[in-house]
Design a protein that fits this description.
The complex is a heterodimer of chains A (482) and B (267). With 482 residues, chain A is α+β, with helices and mostly antiparallel strands. Chain A contains twelve helices and twelve strands. The longest helix of chain A is centred in the middle third of the chain and has 63 residues, at 240-302. Chain A is rod-shaped, with a radius of gyration of 55 Å. Chain B has 267 residues and is of the alpha/beta class. Chain B is built from twelve helices and 13 strands. Chain B has helices at 3-10, 26-40, 52-60, 71-76, 127-139, 144-147, 157-166, 176-185, 187-191, 215-226, 232-240, 255-266, and strands at residues 13-17, 44-48, 66-68, 82-88, 94-95, 97-102, 118-121, 150-153, 171-175, 193-198, 202-203, 207-209, 245-247. Chain B has a six-stranded mixed beta sheet with strand order 2-1-3-12-4-13, sandwiched between helices. Chain B has a five-stranded mixed beta sheet with strand order 8-7-9-6-10. The relative contact order of chain B is 0.20. Classes of the chains: A alpha+beta (482), B alpha/beta (267). Chain A binds chain B through residues 66-69, 72, 104, 108-109, 112-114, and chain B through 102, 104, 118, 120, 149-150, 152-155, 159, 163, 166-170.
Chain lengths: 482, 267
């Protein structure tokens, strides 16, 4: 049973439909056969009764005249040895007198004249008992369970006086071939119908089951493989299965959206944490650093004389200055007071990257419908764009292209920088904006960190889309019109 | 003289047949009738009835001209009827009565063994099928009406053979000539029976003429019958009847039957 319950709908539905079709076919066949059987029995009873009645009427005179031979000839004439319906042929015909003794029969050796068939015991004794019980003028059909015959009995009546009975014994067995023929015929028709119907039913049942199977397949992939689940070929009908499919698609969409949000949040949180830590460390470094540099300067100004000390301090000063620069780069701070960003700034940027672009034979294309100044800090925006452009030129293929697109509207500045170089591998994506992460041998890997920090501080958003042949960094930064 | 025969000869000659003979062979009877018409040069009609009595009444009343009847009714009405011809069977004008039982009855060996059984006669006016067994029982000191538990008439010898063969009757009396002929033509029928007694010989059932039959016509018909073997088709017809011919015969041939009838009637 467990095996059956575990069977796929792909098979279960067609098998159940087959079962239903077969069951119906069998039921219809059984009903037809039963009906035919009843009809056959009724025909047989009617035939037997009518024959018995005719014989009883015809036999009155021979019985009255004690003309045994005439009676025998009448019984013989009622037989048709070449009958096409053998079951309509009485197997034995008995004519009994009023005392239930044999007057004549079609089987004289079994039923000798004058003997009592009841003396043979069994069935014929019960026939006599049945005759005693009923009215003398009524016909009877008796079907003893233990006999190979069933009997139709008709009284021989002359002028209201019962002279005896005509008893027709029909073989139950002769009935069987006809019945088997009937069943065979019905079975053949059923089989024919099944042969016609079954392939259609199978096909139809498979079609009914397929959407559910597809849905189940898709559901198995949740939550591991959401993308495959989302793209699964689900039913698109308006029925319950179709509704289920739609609900599933919706659910998968929401799950995917949620997952993306979670991923993004994770990155943002990590970057924020890194940012806070960096700022803390930078401040902690900056404070003693300022003191150390001041001390060196003071010494150089007043206590100079020892050339070795001067050399050493000068080395220290350069090192400390480098540390300061690095820390300053990490500590991106928005200068609130700045001039607005103007279209001319874009021209400046292009001039600034021109040398680098030429060195790598990269074409820089600009699409900038920007016509007026925007109330955003020009220095910071210039730094973002410069970093992104330099990164793009470095990432672009030799002789490739870099495209800069800028537009604004609805209080939002949008820009994108894309290059046609190698795309960024997925495993690098999550750490792209962290400090000291670099895809190249040169540089500290602070360019994108700075970009990210600035965009964050300007309450903007930054995103990357990298596919082979097209890597795009896009940013949206809100501004408030004066 | 020329007028009378012409009228007489154009009228139909009517011949009665009894079921004692093989009267169910319609094609044979048609051939025989046509043959007789050619020989007698006048139309012939066979008249068939269900029993001896009716045919006898017809011939005694002059409704028919000739009849082929049994020796028993002939002796009873010997003073009225006129003997025309007697068939020759196996070369002699005699035949026997057979007492038969079903073939599967292995015990009965003579008529007395059939006491209390069901017995089948052919016709109450038949010698072989009725008179002889009655006579036989009488000579044994038995009462023929109570000797058998039941008895019935089949109104034909062949049917006696059938009745005994299927076991409807435990015994029967049958014309020996009919039984032997059936043994040749329908062996399956006689094989289901067994002959347990053969009677002495009696005169074979004869052709008789109505009481007022003119001697000329009687003589002419007799001549035709007697001459049958001389004619090719006549001989063939006789062969179909399994007879060898006809002889004029003497009434004394039937004295044996007359004696039996007298004996039975007296008891």
């Amino acid at each position: 049973m467990i095996v059956l319950a575990d069977l796929s709908l792909r098979w279960k539905i067609p098998l159940r439909v087959m079962g239903a079709v077969l069951g119906t076919a069998l039921a219809v066949t059984a009903a037809l056969v039963t009906r035919e059987y009843d009809e056959m029995r009724q025909n047989l009873d009617a035939h037997g009764k009518s024959l018995a009645r005719v014989l009883a009427n015809t036999l009155v005179t021979p019985v009255l005249h004690d003309d045994i031979w005439r009676a025998y000839e009448i019984l013989q004439s009622a037989r048709d040895p070449t009958a096409i319906a053998p079951e309509l042929q009485a197997d034995v015909v008995l004519v009994t007198d009023a005392d239930f003794n044999v007057f004549v029969s079609t089987r004289p050796k079994e039923f000798p004249i004058g003997s009592s068939p009841a003396s043979r015991g069994g069935v014929y004794g019960r026939l006599r008992a049945a005759l005693v019980k009923t009215k003398a003028t009524e016909q009877q059909v008796i079907e003893p369970a233990d006999s190979v015959h069933y009997f139709v009995m008709s009284p021989l009546v002359a002028d209201g006086v019962a002279l005896g009975h005509v008893i027709l014994g029909y073989s139950k067995i002769s009935f069987v071939p006809r019945f088997i023929g009937l069943v065979g015929q019905a079975a053949f028709v059923t089989l024919l119908v099944l042969v016609l119907i079954l392939p259609f039913s199978w096909f139809w049942a498979r079609r009914t089951g397929e959407p559910l199977v597809a849905l189940a397949d898709a559901m198995r992939r949740v939550p591991g493989d959401l993308e495959v689940a989302r793209l699964a070929d689900l039913p698109k009908s308006g029925d319950e299965i179709g509704q289920l499919g739609n609900a599933f698609r919706r659910m998968v969409g929401e799950l995917k959206h949620k997952q993306e949000l979670e991923d993004q949040m994770l990155v943002t949180e990590r970057l924020a944490a890194v940012g806070r830590m960096t700022a803390g460390i930078a401040h902690e470094i900056n404070n003693p650093l300022g003191g150390m540099l001041t001390a060196i300067k003071t010494y150089q100004r007043h206590g100079a004389g020892d050339p070795l000390a001067n050399q050493t301090l000068s080395l220290l000063e350069r090192g400390l200055t480098q540390i300061r620069h690095t820390v300053a780069a990490l500590l991106v701070e928005t200068k609130l007071q700045d001039r607005p960003f103007e279209p001319a700034d874009i021209d400046d940027l292009l001039i600034l990257v021109e040398a680098e672009a030429r060195a790598r034979s990269v074409t820089v294309v600009t699409e900038s419908p920007l016509q007026r100044a925007l109330p955003l800090p020009a220095t910071l925006l210039r730094q973002i764009l410069l970093n992104l452009l330099l990164n793009a030129i470095a990432a672009a293929d030799e002789g490739g292209r870099v495209r800069l697109g800028i537009n604004s509207g609805d209080g939002m500045l949008r820009f994108s920088v894309c290059n046609d170089g190698k795309h960024i591998p997925d495993e690098q994506m999550a750490y792209l904006f962290e400090p000291f992460v670099s895809g190249r041998e040169k540089g500290y890997g602070l360019g994108l960190w700075v970009v990210y920090q600035i965009v964050q501080q300007l309450n903007g958003g930054l995103s990357v889309d990298s596919e082979p042949g097209c890597t795009t960094f896009s940013a949206e930064i809100p501004y408030v019109e004066n | 003289m020329p007028l009378l025969p012409v009228r007489a000869e154009t009228s139909v000659l009517r011949i009665g047949l009894t079921p004692v003979f093989l009267d169910d062979q319609l094609s044979f009877l048609t051939r025989w009738r046509l043959w007789l018409e050619r020989r007698l040069k006048r139309p012939v009609a066979f008249v068939q009835r269900g029993n001896y009595r009716e045919v006898l009444d017809l011939v005694r009343g002059g409704k028919i001209d000739f009849a082929w009847v049994c020796g028993y009714p002939y002796v009873r009405y010997r003073h009225e009827l006129r003997l025309v011809a007697v068939p020759l069977w196996r070369g002699r004008p005699y035949y026997q009565s057979y007492i038969i039982v079903p073939a599967d009855d292995g015990h009965s060996s003579s008529l007395p063994d059939l006491r209390g059984k069901v017995f089948s006669y052919s016709d109450p006016d038949s010698n072989s099928g009725y008179l002889y067994p009655q006579y036989r029982l009488t000579t044994l000191g038995e009462n023929p009406t109570t000797f058998f538990s039941r008895n019935f008439f089949t109104w034909g010898h062949r049917k006696v053979v059938e009745a005994v063969g299927v076991g409807l009757a435990d015994g029967g009396a049958v014309d020996g000539y009919v039984w032997e002929t059936l043994a040749e033509t329908h062996p399956a029928l006689t094989r289901s029976t067994r002959v347990i007694e053969r009677s002495p010989e009696f005169g074979h059932p004869p052709f008789v003429a109505r009481p007022d039959m003119p001697a000329v016509e009687l003589q002419r018909f007799r001549a035709v019958l007697v001459d049958m073997p001389a004619d090719a088709e006549g001989a063939e017809l006789l062969h179909l009847l399994r007879l060898d011919g006809f002889v004029a015969g003497a009434p004394a041939l039937f004295d044996g039957i007359a004696r039996m009838a007298a004996k039975v009637r007296s008891t």
